[in-house]
Amino acid sequence: MDSDTRPTRARSRRARLLACATSAAALSWGLPAAAQDQGSLQNSTTTTPSAPQPAVPATANTTSAQQAGQPQDTATDPATTQGNSVDGGEIVVTGLRGSLQRNLDIKRTSSGVVDVISAEDIGKFPDSNVAASLQRLPGVSIQRSGSRGEPTGITVRGFGGDFNTTLYDGRRISTATGGRQIDFSTVGVDFIGQLAVLKTPDVSLTSSSIGATVNIQFPNAFDHPGFRLAASASGSLQDRADKVTPTAGLLLSNTFADDTIGVLADVIYTKRNTDTNRVYVSGWPGGLYAPCQLAGGPTTCAPTSNPEAPAYATPSNRQNLPGWFPQQYGAEQQRVEDERVDARISLQYHPTDDLMVTLDNNFSRQEITQNNYAFGVWFNQGDLRNVTLDENGTAVDFTQAGTPTDFTAALNTQILRTNQTGLNVKYDATENLTLEGDVAYAKSWLNPGDVIGSQNGNIGYGGDLSNTLRFTIDGDSKDSFPSISNFGPRGNAAGWADQSLIGSHVTVNQTQKNTDELLQFRGNATWKQDDLTIKAGGQYYEDTFKFRNQSTFTNNFWQAYAGYGAPSGRATGIAPLPADLYQGSISLNKFIPGFNGSLPPSVFMFDPVAYQNFLTGLGNPQAQNIPGFNYDGVSGFTGTFDEAVDPGSVLRVKEKTWSLYLSASFQTEVGGLPFSFTAGVRNEHTNLKATGQGRLPTSIVRSEADPTLLSIPTYTDIQPATSNSSYSYLLPSIDAKLELTDNLVLRFDASRTLTRPGLNLLNPVLNVGNGQRVGALSASGGNPNLRPYLADNFDFAAEWYYRRNSYLAVDFFIKNVSNFIVGGVTRQAINGLIDPTTGALASFAVTQQVNGPDATVRGVELAWQQVFGDSGFGFQANATFVDTNRPYDETDISQTGFAVTGLANSANFVGFYDKNGAQFRAAFNWRDKYLLQFGQNQNTGSFGAEPTFVNESFQIDLTASYDINRNFSVFAEALNVNNNQQSTHGRYSNQLLDVFDYGRRYTLGARYRF
């Protein structure tokens, strides 16, 4: 029945319902904390015959029980598709082009702004990594793990990390990584059915993401009725590693008992080896130089900022010149092994068209093992001489007398295990009413059991063998790293790696242990009649996070054999070390191809576990005298490097969130043109309880074994601290879509969304760790009363679907964000402590956060997809341009500098060929420089938290496949064929922080589907 012949009563009823929904949305916007939801993907249909309703929705809680039981093999209307596969006389789109068309159909028919990536077939997703797929979408860019080169996170319209919510089949997932975001490298991609990125919210799903909501949908048996089998196997090789590593997956699915019961199970095993070269500066702290430190200054120099100090009487000794210096400089090779198992089982019961019951379990376990071999040199600002500062205040040339040299080896292990079980029931109570209930329980563990997260061995020379090292910068961080000269014992470069002079230094073991336990319920009702859809429901989340760090810093065992030994003139430390500990060396010649700069000749390879076993084998220093043991600085050590729990790191956060939502959608005509409108509102109430353990240091002492080290031998008694808080927000949304022609769609969307503060910021206590350095005292304080970020979001879009599988789109967006969390590093005295190196009140760099200013982010997304008829050729191209009214001000050296992070222009181009069973894709991904975060590895500066910028990046990936027959295909992949390198810098572009060279990766494999 069309709109001209419907009864007046039905039209009147819809008008009243629409008026109620729009009034609720308008009212909620007037409240102090409201937000809107972009429309539900499932509730939007189109009256234009050229845009068939997709069979696979982009949200999991949208379909009716009857729809959930329908096969999803053909996701578009066969009568209007075109492709290269013929089945039963109907021409159906398959392969890459079929996937792209399904994505467009979902995008077009959705009420909100959404982008989708669909599997080409069961067991065949377009990319080998979830984040790698997502970066092909407009407005989406990725962050990579420097050591692995793997995409681990995404940024959407400039908002990354915790600003994006990732769901499994519409459910939140637990993550024990320490934040709210997931690591996408932990998600097995082989058997994913669909990825949907909702850039405007769906109030029935979530409004807790200012960036976007990513919904990962997994297959079920009734998606593909009957027996289905998919298997894949491949081998992968990184060009610096010398070992091929396997990946294999198997999926089995079947429906039986007259298609009333369905079972699906799959398992994926993935292993990747990566050898990465890295040059690093741990941080560029800001501070004050004395004029005597500058090049051409007096030979006698005693920098001080204490007016009571005798040296202060000499003006050239007064620290009054702002500038930056490198805290620690070095190079290392990281050899990473990434091993992951993903598994899923899904049981479905579909006795009638009106009922669908789904019980599923998703499991993943990732173990990353990393062997690092490095050298490092440490600098203190007050010890620098002959300093040349550039126009920005960066120390580009200096010398430091007495510089020690350290060689390190580390065995790092991280295990992340997650298990989620869920039960979903859909019941079509009437022809118009669908009821749904969903319950899920998930738990995630970081480093469960007896895992030691990092075992470190640190050896080297110092004291009498230290040297007057020279450090110079001559270039930009995007193509140059610093140079050091006059290295080696007493400046003898030929003795750089003289094993007879090398002794033991510090020994660090530390492990972060986290758990995240998540219980969630959802219930909703959907009423559909004619062109009207009403949805109402509620959700409950109970999320419990537990954090704990244990290390040899806590009990000070890390300094047990510090000092470097007799060749360095020290009474502590063991030297020389047994020759059989050394396993060779790694050349630093041409270490980072394409980068200028000079390094020492090599780093040692040695086993840190064998090194620790050697020291343990010396015996119990409490039961016998062991020459070289640090008796004056370490107590309680009985021979083994046992970790101790840091009380200040213990944190338990429990969040309970209740949500109610209501939305109404209708479709009609305006001036004879199809018009869709959705209005919704979601109310969220959160109770938060954060519990920590507080203690304060009562003394600081300087290490007798190493004058660069400090210890805190005594603390006050541990006091538990608990903070309770709560907040409520009303989050409205509206979505409007007008079809000007059969092919041209206009959209307007407005919403309010929120993002909750990071969990690590909610600790109610101040934590002062034991592992301190001279001139680098630090502490961290939490704030459990932080409130969520709030954003008012607006989208104005036009989409032109000018032919099958082709479209042009432009989307202008604005986000007005309030409650930004800011703060950074401030200088504070703690408990009246005296710094033993200065005799003055100790000054700690304390990291704390508060809710602060507002900011506006604005931008435009451009997208173009073109398929050239039946030639098989086509391309996807998109570009995003973003801006803000709060850019970073590099001249601001206040303690509370602020800027919006993550903003960068980006562009992607994918050219492809897909015909006659052959497929080839070339993907080009570019992202401009952007501010990643406030904070560096060392946060000890006087000018607040120093920034970390990521330099411009451009990467090319190639993939190809060929169908041997209908069931069997082979594929190949070459990633990072242009050898893109990842580099970061500090406040200014010549302040290099990291450069990672992770090389290329090649994969060859085969798939079988039945």
Automatic annotation (TrEMBL):
It holds the Pfam family TonB_dep_Rec_b-barrel. Residues 1-35 form the signal peptide. The keyword rRNA-binding does not apply. Residues 61-85 have a biased composition (Polar residues). Residues 107-210 form the TonB-dependent receptor plug domain. It is found in: Cell outer membrane. Residues 458-977 form the TonB-dependent receptor-like beta-barrel domain. Residues 35-90 are annotated as: Disordered. It is a multi-pass membrane protein. Keywords: Cell outer membrane, Membrane, Receptor, Signal, TonB box, Transmembrane, Transmembrane beta strand, Transport. Belongs to the TonB-dependent receptor family. This is TonB-dependent receptor. It comes from Sphingomonas desiccabilis.
